[in-house]
Design brief:
Elements lengths: L2 E7 L7 H12 L3 E7 L5 H11 L3 E4 L13 E2 L1 H6 L4 E5 L4 E5 L2 H10 L10 E5 L3 H12 L4 E5 L3 H11 L4 E3 L1 H6 L6 E4 L24 E4 L8 H8 L3 E3 L2 H16 L5 H12 L1
Parallel strand pairs: 1-2, 1-3, 4-6, 7-8, 7-10, 8-9, 10-11, 11-12
Antiparallel strand pairs: 3-5, 5-6
The protein binds 2'-monophosphoadenosine-5'-diphosphate.
The site of 2'-monophosphoadenosine-5'-diphosphate (ATR) has 15 residues, from α5.
Length: 276
């Protein structure tokens, strides 16, 4: 029987998830469809009930529902609990349970790992931003034992709260202090929405003090190269955009749903061809 997957969010029009997942079904010979569902907040509970009611096999959950949806699933896996958000629901029909997972942080880590110059446990990271996307990345990096994690945010209190949740040695800074101490870090990640289309041209912090050995990463992939990454290029630094995170979070969802290894290269090529 054809399986049905999808994504629920609001707005949902621009998502590349259907294209990406469909390319994976084609490549692996899985008979499935992937549908975008525009779900208003007041209909979220009904939408989640509808997964079970209609026998939908699984959905991704995106902005703005990742936190609220936790209330409506039957079970949360450890990672979703740790991050405090769900981006993937599995309809486990044998157990008659909807289970919430989060693949965002691990997806980012996978995209980052191949680009690191030092072992992960020796890497010092500056994360800019403490919103939803930043939280998934911060909690994952801290849990996996990065050497040092520093979180900088416009609203310092949010960076402090997130650092507290990450535990260990995680520090919080203002954007200005982070900017002045840029040379301390091996990896600098922008998780804020600053630089996202259509308001491109903005930078979350200046990269004037950047060392060329630093890897500069942006979770944004539209535009493909934000001004933040272009300025990093000019400093001779390596850059990583957000497309790898998008592909890997989707690949991990695919694997949770199907039990089949995701064709990551095909998924990445599909998304890249569309965006570049
Ligand atoms: P997302 O789910 O994409 O992470 P979010 O949860 O709304 O979105 O978080 C947005 C992040 O971008 C926050 O860290 C926010 O900083 P504040 O906590 O101070 O609001 C950051 N951000 C948004 N606009 C910004 C701007 N103009 N300058 C600096 N930071 C900004």
């Amino acid at each position: 029987m054809t399986q049905v997957f999808g994504v629920i969010g609001d707005p949902i029009g621009h998502t590349l998830s259907p294209l990406m997942h469909t390319s994976a079904y084609r490549d692996t010979g899985i008979s499935a469809s992937y549908v975008s569902f525009n779900v208003k907040q007041e209909n979220l509970e009904d939408a989640v009930k509808g997964i079970r009611g209609l026998g939908i096999n699984g959905v991704n959950v995106t902005v703005p529902h990742k936190i609220e949806v936790m209330k409506y699933v039957d079970e949360l896996d450890e990672t979703a609990k740790r991050i405090g958000a769900v981006n993937t629901i599995v309809n486990d029909k044998k157990q008659n349970k909807l289970i919430g997972y989060n693949t965002d942080g691990e997806g980012y880590l996978r995209s980052l790992q191949s680009r690191l110059r030092k072992p992960f446990r020796e890497t010092r990271v500056l994360l800019i931003g403490a919103g939803g996307a930043g939280r998934a990345v911060a909690v994952t990096l801290a849990h996996k034992g990065v050497k040092q994690l520093t979180i900088a945010n416009r609203t310092v209190a949010s960076a402090e709260a997130l650092a507290e949740d990450c535990g260990g040695e995680t520090r919080a800074l203002s954007l200005g202090t982070a900017q002045a101490s840029l040379m301390e870090f091996d990896v600098v990640i922008n998780s804020t929405s600053v630089g996202m289309a259509p308001g491109t041209g903005q930078m979350p912090i200046s990269l004037e003090k950047l060392a060329s050995r630093t890897l500069v990463s942006d979770l944004i992939y539209n535009p493909w190269k934000t001004r933040f990454l272009k300025e990093a290029d000019k400093k001779g630094a390596e850059t990583l955009n957000g497309v790898g995170m998008f592909v890997h979070q989707g690949a991990l969802s695919f694997e949770l749903w199907t039990g089949v290894q995701a064709p990551v290269k095909i998924m990445e090529r599909t998304v890249t061809e569309k965006l570049r």
